[in-house]
Amino acid sequence: xxxxxxxxxxxxxxxxxxxxxxxxxxxxxxHRERGLYSPIEQVTGRVKxxxxxxxxxxxxxxxxxxxxxxxxxxxxxxxxxxxxEDIDTVAxxxxxxxxxxxxxSDMEIKCIKDYIAHQKESGYRSYHLVIxxxxxxxxxxxxxxxxxxxxxxxxxxxxxxxxxxxxxxxxNIPPYVKERLANAxxxxxxxxxxxxxxxxxxxxxQNSSLMQRNLxxxxxxxxxxxxQKSNRREVEKIQDEFYRxxxxxxxxxxxxxxQQLDIIAEGYCAQAVTSEGWDQNL
Length: 282
Ligand code: 0O2
Hints:
The protein is an alpha+beta fold. The protein has nine helices and five strands. The chain has helices at residues 6-33, 50-60, 67-70, 84-100, 153-169, 175-197, 199-229, 232-248, 251-281, and strands at 42-47, 75-81, 107-114, 127-137, 140-152. It has a five-stranded mixed β-sheet. Helix 7 (199-229) packs antiparallel against helix 8, helix 7 runs parallel beside helix 9 and helix 8 runs antiparallel to helix 9 (251-281). The longest helix has 31 residues, at 199-229. It starts with 5 loop residues before the first helix and ends with a helix. The relative contact order is 0.09. The protein binds ligand 0O2. Residues 48, 52, 56, 72-73, 76, 113, 120, 122, 124, 128, 159, 162-163 line the site of ligand 0O2.
């Protein structure tokens, strides 16, 4: 058997994890920057440890030559959502990205394992997509596999605890602990259901606080721009007015103030262009 150069084998997987985590984090940021609710709460990734790869190969009787095809989760991405409905949204985004540009996409779905519709015997629930992902390496392009796990915060809580117990007890989790875990899994289903039932209220509250944050940032930026171009006294008055409205916690008033400030800023902009024109004509 050839010597296994693990660092070389795993390097493209490390690259894939870094790139994929960044892609999904960017997607989440884009939502927030546009003042939209993001279905992605948190993204993490890891390359499976060598012992964990070897352990899986032993358990599933996988020969070395087939490791990269059969161990599908060497690169693993975990996307945590607030609500169960968000899981479908994220999965749909991944399906769209891989379908939309089929043939040109750097991502292609190999298979889906829906452990939410089909909960595992252990009580584990999560939505898995195994994808093929293209990375550029020093030796040229390489197509590798990555597993994307999508789950709610509550599902993640359960899975994290259960996973650590698997380490403690190996495969022999005592029956009374198994039963407790099964009960906890039921409680997680109920919790996710409860949270979904107040999803609209929670989303509205989150959206308005996000909108307020974006408005405030925009207003402060506008005030700073005005400070460069106009009379200091006038800008001070505008700033005082902003702090007064901000303290009143009235989102509608804040929106109106934002619009007025935009008009003032445009006025200054037009003035600057005209005076530049004058300067050139002189
Ligand atoms: P780690 O530590 O996460 O890297 P399997 O036969 O179940 O081991 P399979 O069929 O190749 O694996 O893929 P599957 O079922 O999609 O599982 C891969 C990963 O899903 C696991 O990785 C876990 O992260 C998670 N998972 C699957 N089943 C369970 C479960 O019952 N409990 C918990 N907590 N997590 C689960 P690994 O291999 O465990 O390693």
